[in-house]
Design brief:
The chain has about 180 residues and is mainly α. It has a domain at about 60-145. About 50% of the residues lie in helices and about 0% in strands. It has helices at about 5, 15-20, 40-75, 75-85, 95-100, 105-135. The longest helix is centred in the first third of the chain and has 33 residues, at about 40-75. The two termini are about 45 Å apart.
């Protein structure tokens, strides 16, 4: 039940030149001249460290942006749950005047429950805001593969796209997506 068209794709029928190519760059190099010159081992290590450091900085900026967005969006939940835990007699039982005059154990329990109920939709909103911002700013294009350090003359991913982080020169306003 062998198909004659599928037999043409056996590994035995591949040209010998495919097995002899030592290791071409794994990225699309249409605009660049091949074969490219490999860096020296020391230069390769230095460039790999530079690219790795740049990727770490971009990662830390993404984490900082994520933490800021989540902190701002989840602030109502944090405040409500904090006051609920602060005034409940079995948790902290603060001696603040609002705990003794306004909030008793039942209202503190209600605040705790309300805080945790509000948390789920606000997490979804925070993630949607973060994903939309990352997509709009093209922040994941700032990450560069370490294979860029192996060959001399490799163009950075963002060099032709309009600057750092791959921000295009003209935004495409026709594309819309629901998050």
């Amino acid at each position: 039940m062998s198909d004659p068209e599928m037999d043409d794709y056996d590994a035995d029928n591949l040209p010998d030149a495919w097995g002899r190519i030592p290791g071409l760059p794994p990225y699309n190099m249409e605009d660049q001249l091949l074969p490219m010159e490999r860096r020296s081992p020391c230069g390769c290590v230095a460039w790999a460290c530079l690219v790795a450091m740049m990727n770490v900085v971009v990662f830390l900026l993404n984490v900082l942006l994520l933490a800021t967005i989540f902190l701002v969006v989840l602030l109502p939940t944090i405040v409500v749950a904090y006051f609920g835990f602060q005034c409940h007699s079995r948790v902290l039982h603060s001696t603040a005047s609002y705990c003794q005059t306004i909030l008793d154990d039942n209202s503190s329990s209600a605040l705790i429950i309300l805080g945790f109920v509000m948390m789920s939709p606000l997490i979804v909103v925070a993630m949607a805001v973060y994903c939309g911002l990352v997509r709009r700013l093209h922040l994941f294009l700032c990450f560069q593969p370490c294979a860029r350090a192996v060959y001399k003359g490799v163009k950075w991913r963002w060099s032709e796209d309009g600057g750092p982080c791959g921000c295009p020169r003209a935004w495409n306003h026709q594309v819309k997506a629901w998050v």
